[in-house]
Amino acid sequence: MNPHRVLHCYSPKGGSGKTMLALTLAGALAQHGRVLVVDYDPNGNDGGALRWAAQARDCDRPTSFMVSPAMPRRPEDFDVILIDHAPGRPARVTDGQVIIPTTLDPGTYFSARRALDVLRKRKPVLVANRVRLDRAEPRRLLAQLPGTLALSDRAIFASAYGVGATIWDEDAGLRNAQAARAEFQPVVDAVLARAGFPVRVPGEAA
Fold this sequence. Notes:
By secondary structure, the chain is an alpha/beta fold. Helices cover 34% and strands 17% of the residues.
């Protein structure tokens, strides 16, 4: 499989929002291609992508992408494979685009900075999750990384997870989904641009 079609959501620390980021990216890309999320972190703080898929089944909700605990035998069957890694050292972060999520608490933030240094040749995309710009500490840390993509602290992501949906599922009845999509779109665009995907993103003209 073309390594540019593999995305790695990786963070040295748990609780950084990897699963949310992986699922939301998958929901966006699945509108224009066949997407698989590989859950290497089924016991993560957010419950893991496998648990999300179970939530979807419990709610009798069809999903727009597949979730698996392992890489497929035929990776060429998918346009995009998105791997949700367990926290720790990036030993399994093989070829492909790396996305590093972080929350803006000092411990998680500085772990993300170290990961950026280790993986700098891979030109990772850094995404700040659950950002509260009404607080001084997150503003200070975010200012130290100009150009970092930031996602507000929104309840909609937890609401979507609870029903086995993503913010891109218009039939999920999620409040404020349009605002969340607009804020997340730059993350989708950045990942596509870095990885060179020939995949049209949601809302883009044909």
